[in-house]
Amino acid sequence: MADGVARVTGRATLEDVARAAGVSLATADRVVNRRDGVRDKTVARVEAAIARLGYRADPAAARLARNQSFRFLFILPTGANSFMTLLAEQVARTAEWLADQRAYLDIEHVDVFEPEALAAVLETVPPGYHGVATVALDHPRVRAAIDDLADRDVPVVTLVSDVPSSRRVHYVGIDNPAAGRTAATLMGRFLRGQTGTVGVIAGSLALRDHAERQFGFTQVISREYPGLVVLPAIEGRDDSERTRLAVSTMLEREKDLVGIYNVGAGNRGVAAALQQAGRRAGEIAWIAHELTAHSRRYLLNGEIDALISQNPGHEARSAGRVLLAYCSGNPMLPDQERIGIDIFLRDNLP
Q1: In CATH, which superfamily holds the domain spanning 176-309?
Q2: Please, how many CA atoms are within 13 Å of residue 142, restricted to the half-sphere of its CB?
């Protein structure tokens, strides 16, 4: 070229950098990977070529060159929870992307409502796994199992529900107190000054996400809507039949019930109880979580007034990216991994 600068079309390679800097490929590799044994003048020349060509290292290619790969274990809940089914599907899709990065994942299902069962899986994670992502229960034995994995240099990412006092490396999920506060504000506005009681259904208050949502909900209702009284939460274990029975009992007992906030899953049970009691759509304000095939139908029919949701695809990909970044020694991008709170009305359904 007339100006003496090599032109590169497409993405620059390490070979392009070496050629532009007038060094061997091995020397360019040493500079890129910050290894010793290269003179300062040569380092400066290689770094100038990197800047000029806009070279970015390809981590997957580097792992291939080093014959390096990773294996991750995703621990997901058993049961018929529609959202968790969607999450499992998205984790399976994430596995395809990770495979291109020379990282592979396995999925194990466990009853996360049982701390001993979850802890037992965490305690027996076999050697050979480089990272774990788990929907977690905040329990002493689960915390200890996560800390034991940290002692083995196996990073743990908590997914959807957190164990913040453990040595997990990152939590992938929404701000659950904020989600509960959002649900309370919507509930108060939908009820428009009505007075009465509001029922709360949780899967389990041992799940931190459910407990934090209930806390945020009660915090706002008690402060800003004094005409509403939040009833003690009833645990439905995210089971539709158990939730149906709980809501049916609530409807019989609480004659001034004006609202229901379902913190977790089991929306089919809430709908069945309201229908059996002869309550028409709109008679009781109902706020629920997660956009699924069932909750979408209830929202369209006017039974659910609003959904607070999170994107399972974003969460699955985020957990994979965080584990890959941690194991590769690359920086995590906090803004990319922030999980947003979605609010769906029937008018803005995707």
Answers
A1: Response regulator (3.40.50.2300)
A2: 28
pLDDT tens-digit readout, 163-213: 999 999 999 999 999 999 999 999 999 999 899 999 999 999 989 999 999
Domain ranges of the chain: 14-57, 68-173+312-339, 176-309
Q: What is the CATH number of domain 68-173+312-339?
A: 3.40.50.2300
**Torsion angle of the four alpha carbons 59, 67, 92, 330, in this order, in degrees rounded to the nearest 10:** -30
Contact 158, 258 (CB under 8 A): no
Partners of 183 in the β-ladder:
none
Q: Do domains 68-173+312-339 and 176-309 have the same CATH topology?
A: yes
Kindly report the backbone phi and psi dihedral angles of residue 259, in degrees, each rounded to the nearest multiple of 5, phi listed first: -155, 155
SS (H, E, C) 302-325: CCCCEEEECCHHHHHHHHHHHHHH
Is 134 in a helix, a strand, or coil?
strand
> Quick one: 14-57 is in which CATH superfamily?
lambda repressor-like DNA-binding domains (1.10.260.40)
222 conformational bin, left if phi > 0, alpha if psi -120 to 50, beta if neither: alpha
Give the CA distances from residue 212 to residues 76, 113, 163, 165, 265, in Å, rounded to whole numbers and listed in that order. Answer: 20, 16, 12, 15, 15
User: Taking the model in full, what pTM does it have?
Assistant: 0.80
